Every structure is written in structure tokens, then in C-alpha cells.
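User: Can you write out an input/output pair for a complex, sequences first and structure second?

Assistant: Here is one pair. Inputs:
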Amino acid sequence: MIAIDPAPQPDDDSLLAAEHALGLVTRDEARVLDARLARDPAFRAHHVLWTEAFARLGQSIPPVDPPADLEQRLRRRLFPDEAEGWWRRTGLVPALVSAAVAGGLVLAVGGWDARAPWMAEPSEAAAPVARSAVNDQAGRGFEALLRDTEGAAFLRVTFAVQEARLIAERPDGDAPLRTQAIWLWLLAEDGAAVLLGPVLEAGPVHLTLPGEAIPDLSSMTLAATAAPLDTADAAFPSDRVVATGPVLPEAHHAEPLASH
Amino acid sequence: MTPITQPGDLDALIGRTARGDRAAFRILQAATAPRLFGLCLHVLDDRAEAEVAVFDICLTIWHRAAEHPDSGLDGMTWLTVIARDHLVVRSRAARAARGAPDDLALLADLPAVRSAVGPLGGAAQADAQDRRPRIELCLDRLDPDRAEMLRQVWFDGLTAPEIGQRLGLGPEATRRWLRTSLAHLSRCLGA
């Protein structure tokens, strides 16, 4: 049985704003109310309150990993001129890659001393060489371990090549990120760099692996940079590198990956 | 998992996107697509449709980012509203294509389905209680029929005529019924 109340309404404007925010008014009413929103701050304030309140319903839905090729499809649709230019060329990258590969894979970057608050302390047991393992595409596992400038394990990355996806997570797992966002980059031997995305969560973060990169993965290096979320740039910020790890075939390693 | 994203970060990224900053858009998309895709799946309950929807929503965000400052909404709310508006259009079109009567019958079953799926029980409910948004707590204090109808209005884009058809009420009585529901909610929300 549906109860019909006599309708003692506390604030008609608030309820009218709610009806409009929810799309419960007719098109003619919506046109009138749209015009009122533009000239009536009090009515607009009601509208914002209701919109925000109901939007919380949507924001309480658990996140789900989107399709792995979402970014690639968006890029093709919106930025067709990037088809061959997505890998951003920068003269700084070859030196970085060379240092990472030839210089013991622990990269010291001048000027960097702002460690993220959750960055792992260096371990005495830390290997002097950052180890990463990436296999061919025959179905074996792929992973990489990025180490910071002092050799401490910083970020563990697992590749799922067939799904064009990679998963990044911090080895210590539970310390929250605070003021810095960590950006993960894939660096090619020839100096190209591509931003894979931000690592925004303390737990596993799924990122898209560019299809173009897959054939050459075994010659690439992963780099993590730290910067506020709203200052990330398209260009690879070599002065903000906090950790690196080369991507090498698993067969190159005699021992399994370890955090420390 | 603890997100580090601050509200102002998203606002700044949307602002940069509005100025055509592709890197900012890529970051915005990477940061928010999981939440938007989760909403798409929840509403459409079909992965293929949800994949199309989240793609279209991201395109919309790129094209309409310049409208964000005028909305008066924080970044995540604005993105959620963009997604919700898109999903409502899809849901209404799907209902129209399938034929309203059958679909309304399905919608009538939603409370029972959602009741069967949740809510959480026992300790889990107690743990989750203080993390739920206020709108959820206030809806829980409404008559269940009213609360479920308002949830369907937001998630599924149920229209006033569809509600009237569900309730067997004419347009004026439907509007009074809705306004009474919203008035109860308003008192709880302090809106």
C-alpha cells in the first residue's frame, strides 16, 4: 500500500531544486529552472547540495578496473596525431637508461632528496643491483622490481602481457601515500619515454601496458618519478626519478625477485 | 587501499584538461576510470555495454571539462554527474527500446533483488556503517518503497511518469508522493 501524504513541504525551492537535479521535471520545467539556476544563487545553492548528496550514491560504488585498452582507444579517437608520437622523445632519457643498465641499475639522480614519506628505508640486505624479470610472451610470468637510489625495494611491478596490463604495488603494502603521487614510466633504449600512469593507491594499482611496447619489453627500463598529482607533465621529468628497474628476461636471473 | 588523491588535485587536472592538456587528461582518466567503470557496471549490469559507456563518458569529460568551474561542484562530483547523466540517457533509451511495461515490471523487482544481494549484515554492517555516505544513511531512514524509488531515480533515471505508473498514481499525486519523499530526505540531510 502506498501512503500519500498531505504534502506539508518545508522549502519548495529546495524540493524543486532536488526534482531538477534528479531529472524529475518536464523539459519545459527544466528550461525554466536552468534559467533560474543562472540568476538565482540561493536556488543554485540548493541544486548543488542535492546534486552532491545524490552523487555520493554513485561514489560509494566500488571501483572496477576498466578495459585494458581504454586509454589507447581514447588516444586514437581524440589525438590521432599521436599515433606515432606517443613515445615522447627526450634527450635526457638515453642517459638515464644507460645509467640504469650500465651503472649497477641503482640510479643516483642529482638534486633528488625528497623521499616520499612512505618510502622504504634502505635495507642492509638490499642487493646492490635492482633486479627485474620479464619473460617472453610464451605465457610465463613477468615482473619487475624498482629500487630507490639507496637500493631499497620501492615498487614491485607484475606484467600481464596478454591482457596488456601491469600491476604496480609497494613492497611494504600498507603505508599510505600522502602528498606525492608516484608516476610510472616505461623507458626505451632509443630514448623514448611513455607515461604508464599514476600509482595512486597503497595497494595494487592496475595500469595499461601500451601494445607498442610489448615486443621490445626486454630492452626497456621502468622508472618511478614523484610529483604532486596536478603537476605531472607529458615530458619525462628526469630530475624527479626516485627509483628504477630494468626489464630483463627472467632467464637472466639466477635467483627469484625479493623485496630486499 | 588508501587513495592519495586530494579533491583539489582532480579540480586542477580537470582545469588542465579544459585547456587541452593531454597529459592531464591521461592522468585524470587513469585516476578516475576505475570508479567511473564501476558505476557503469553497477547501472548497466552488462560488461560490454559498460565498456562502451565508460569510453563515451571519458570522451564527454574531455569535451566538457571547460564547464566544470561553472557547475559549482568539486571535481569528483562533477565527473560522477557527467557519468550519471550519460548512464541515465542510456538506461532510458534501453527501456524505451525494450518496451516500458516489461521493463517497469523488471524495475519493480529491483527492491527484492537488491534486498537479496545486500545490505551487509552483522559485524560487517557495523564496520561499514560509519563509512557510508550520509545520503545512504538518510535513505535507510525513509520508508523502504520511497528509498528504493529514489535510488532508482538516481541510478536508473526512473522518470516521474514511470514512477506514477509503478504506483498507480496520476501526475499530481505522483509529484506529491515524490515531494514528500524528498522532504523527509531533506530534513535528514539538512539540505
